[in-house]
Amino acid sequence: MSLDASFHSPDLYLLLAAFLFAAGVFGMVRRRTLIGMLIAGELIFSSASLNLLALNHFFAPDPTAGQVFALFILALAAAEASIALAITIAVYRNYRSINSRELSELNG
Amino acid sequence: MNGFPATDYVVAFVFAVAVAATVGGALIAVLTSRIIRSVCGLAICCCGLAGLYYFLHSPFLTLMEILIYVGAICVTIIFAVMLAEPDESPSRETRRQALGWGGAALLVSVAVFWGVARLGLGHDWAAPARRTSQGTVKDIGVSLLTTYSLAFELISLVLLVAILGALVIARYGRTKP
Predict the structure, then answer these.
(1) Range of the domain at A46
(2) Is B124 on the interface with A (CB under 8 A)?
(3) How many structural domains are present in chain B?
(4) Contacting residues for B81 by C-beta, under 8 A, at least 6 apart
(5) DSSP designation for A100
(6) Domain that holds residue B156
(7) In this complex, do A92 and B84 lie within 8 Å of one another by their Cβ atoms?
(8) pTM for the complete prediction?
(9) To 5 degrees, how large is the angle CA A34–CA A40–CA A45?
């Protein structure tokens, strides 16, 4: 039954969520383009969602609430992605680059 | 379980595939140098996450994850990749600077992973005494239209504003040379 135990306990899900969050932070620091940073941001959203659902499934008295919250996170991630991509394209039109090193006009 | 042979092993295998897709997709998404591969990594990661959601008894979220992330967000990012030139140019930063930044990013992310994992695993979570609902799709629908109806409407408003804002921002400057 040790096979069963891995997905009947919350530990693996929490570890995975922590890993996704760390990967998102790594990408956010390391990436040099706006789209790469947006992808890292989506990973962070996913990690929050997975964490919420794991705790919701194992420890919440009302498992519906966490699922509804995760749905709202999905919708907000979609809105964020659309806005961020629009900004990316506007920046590209003006600067001919989306490299975050070159977007330094406001740099004091 | 039931009559089908080796059901436990099949289920464990599917779970292992979901976990591997999530981890591998996330690694592809942050480590490759070409953005288009990174988007593919994000799509793989989201497919794995959808599998994990299914193991967490949330079939509706599984469907939504694939529909919204793989079907909408990844496709939108690919559109942006086609409209801009996102590939990181063979940059002016030297190899040593790149290694330094990579090391710093790795250090920060390992610290974050250690901290979050320690918080999550170290806490003594208490299982609920009794469940007030089963969390089925029907329960989700009912609570979306009763308890969370205001939030539901507000989310649709946020999405509308986001669409309009994206249109306005992306339209600006279009006629300039």
Answers:
(1) 2-95
(2) no
(3) 2
(4) A35, B35, B36, B39
(5) T
(6) 136-177
(7) yes
(8) 0.88
(9) 125
